[in-house]
Fold this protein.
Amino acid sequence: MDGLVTRHLGLVFGATPGSARTVLQDVSAVFPRGALALVTGATGAGKSSLLSLLAGLLRPTAGEVLADGAPVSRWGAAHRDRWRRRVGIVFQSANLFSELSVLENVILPLVPRSRSLAALRAAGREVLAELTLTDLAGAQAAQLSGGERQRTALARALVGRPDFLIADEPTAHQDPENAARVLQALAACRARGAVVVVAAHDPRVVGAGVADRHWQLAAGRLEAG
Amino acid sequence: MKPPHLNPLLLWAARDVIRRPWPTLLMAAALALLLTVSGTALLFSQGLSQTARRLLAHGPDLVVRRLNAGGWAPLPAAEAVAAARRVPGVTHAQARVWGVAAGLVGPLMVIARADAALPPAADGKPLAAPRPGEALLGPGVDPGPDPQRLPLTAAAALELRPVGRLPAESALLGQDVVLVHPDDARRLLGLPPGAAVDLAVDVFHADEAAAIQPELAAAFPWPVRITARSEAVGLYSGGLARRGGLMLIAGIPAVLALVLVVAGAVREAVGQRRAVGLLKALGWTTGEVVRLQVCRALLIALPAACLGMLAAYTLVFRPGVSWPGSLLFGWRTAPPRLFLDPAGAFLTLLELGALVVGPYLAAVLLSSLQGAAADPQDLLKGEGLL
């Protein structure tokens, strides 16, 4: 099946029985192409861990993640590295390189596979324009506000036109106008046929009605919201 | 014409290097210094042995000295030459007069030279054999305050008039040499008329030199010791090797410094774990991350290596540089010019690469591989990101 699928996914942190903490258990869900899935839940419910599993950053301790039918969670590191080229990730904390400019941060995912830096810059500027960050292209990431950082992180995730977009709190620190722009960018990505999975606390995201499916994560279990 | 595209990864690595100027400069300076130290030692010992081999290749096949109970004894020149020439296979025999005399600045090697077959002088003009009262000076001989007088003292005191300089090519062996007329040499060194210190013998086939030795020894009416050219080269090389060993002791701090450089490279790579984790999370493969780190290391190491090599070359081969000769040989005057053949220089470069740049690059490569092979989420637990 196209899209992302989780089957009986489980995640336990800690190796010894005494210190083990179950974060996710028996999570089975389908995140189809061309749809935006919203995952909500209380702080510490395991939203970020679920997104890390979907993005191939973590290996599950049980179950599996399938991407377009391929069992990516079972693949070795090298295969998962290559698969991750098709994934755009927005972390909860923006995770930008402070010494780089906004544009440099944005084009970073494409640097090793591009033939020309000029083409990369053009692609970066295009996506920055969508998120009204053009004026900040040359600014150091360290000088940005929280909202600008998060939009830069979203631009970085979108620059490679990913097949799978995994975004953790993408509207954090945004004013209503910019939050609407962020949601618009997510919807545009969905419209291209990508799988979009968003974890959010923000009631604006829930209330905006952009989500095609709403999942609720509680006590490590995922339920339709 | 369209400008050629530079690989963005290489450009990125270059920008990365420029972005952190101080760590980059420190690492490059450490590498360049290491290369200068080890390069100077290697190039100097190599230059010495190549120059020595080059000069000894033109020496006699055999050298005969007369022995007596107390050591060496002068030999009667004409009788020794005649005896040697009677031995089948000997093509040329020449009696030599030489010894050490004290000059104003230090000890000098005095050699009698009567024939006219001398190389051109340092200024390119032909040199004539010195007449009585004259002297030809080696490139490093300092006659003292009066350049028109060369006072010498051995068994007797003598004052000679310098009439020319030997060419710089002869400097390693002729550095402190004074060529004089045979009569002057004998008087200075206390030898009776017609006596010589040793006999230089050439044979028809250099390979037969060892086979001829017993017959040659039997041709003289007194006990002799015969030294072949190969022994002389071995003796000289042995001396150089011993000095090279001393230089290696001086190289121990350089090795320790190299260990620190490698440790620094490993520490830097470990410190970038989180950055590596993020790159991997953004879709970089392990190979791409390693390529970036290696490109960065090469951009630091290669210019540093060139700079270090250039400095080492300049310190050893620039005319007028005196410290290596004064440190290793105790030369007190102008140093000789050393020779280096291109193949030797290339090998030295390879040795240096293996010694300094190799461990640094290996440290970067291994620690990058180790870091980049981990799961991104594990690597992301660190500092340095916003």
In short: Chain A has seven helices and nine strands.
